[in-house]
Amino acid sequence: MIKLIQAFLTGIFFTFILDFFIFLGIKNNYIDFYEIDLYYNILFADNQNIYFFALSSVVIGFIFNYINNTKLSFIVIGLLSILSLSTLIPTIGHGLGEMMFMKKDVTYKNRKYVYRGDVYYNGRTKITFHDYELKKIIFLNKKDLIK
Fold first, then answer.
1. Scanning 42, 79, 82, 141, which has its CA 20 to 30 A from the CA of 115?
2. What is the Cα–Cα distance from 121 to 134, expressed in whole angstroms?
3. How far is CA 69 from CA 18, 25, 64, 75, in A?
4. Do the beta carbons of residue 11 and residue 58 sit within 8 Å?
5. Does the pLDDT at position 56 exceed 90?
6. Dihedral, CA atoms, 124, 19, 50, 6, nearest 10 degrees?
7. Is 104 exposed, middle or buried (0-12, 13-18, 19+ CB in 10 A)?
8. What is the pLDDT of residue 1?
9. Banded pLDDT at 70 (limits 50, 70, 90)
């Protein structure tokens, strides 16, 4: 039982490290590129998939504590580290940010205007939006939009 808990905690530790670099690459190469006013902690907390995180923690913990082949363990962790660190490369980090956050050709309405364009980031209270007609980035308050 203790080895099982140790495996899970080891998996959580390494998964946090991998996730840190994934979200750091997205922050540096996507969020900052579009000048979205967003702290790293909010980006990390709001977009962390708890099911994927738990599954990754279990798998990584199992690899470290139950597989007796250290070479295999280092290869798997090395490959996962390379994949997460690759988001620090601008084209990869920007592309992953677009896959996660960008929505193309979206229409929003408030009491006065209709906005048509691309969503760059859908935050807690604001939507960072590129309007096709205005040809610039605007911020829409979620509470002002009509569904």
1. 42
2. 18
3. 22, 31, 9, 10
4. yes
5. yes
6. -150
7. exposed
8. 84
9. confident
Is residue 11 within 8 Å of 57, Cβ to Cβ? yes
User: Which structure tokens are listed for 15?
Assistant: 């998964």
Q: Residue 121 pLDDT more than 90? A: yes
Side chain identity at residue 44, one-letter code: F
pLDDT of 147 over the 90 cut: no
Output the pTM of the full model. 0.89
Q: What is the DSSP string of 76-142?
A: HHHHHHHHHHGGGSHHHHHHHHHHHH-EEEEEEE-SS-EEEEEEEEE-SSEEEEEETTTTEEEEEEG
* Long-range contact pairs involving 139-144 (C-beta distance under 8 Å, separation at least 24): 140/108, 140/110, 140/115, 144/110, 144/111
Q: Which residue has the tokens 């929003």?
A: 108
Handedness of CA 2, 3, 8, 9 (dihedral sign): positive
Q: Which amino acid is at 81?
A: S
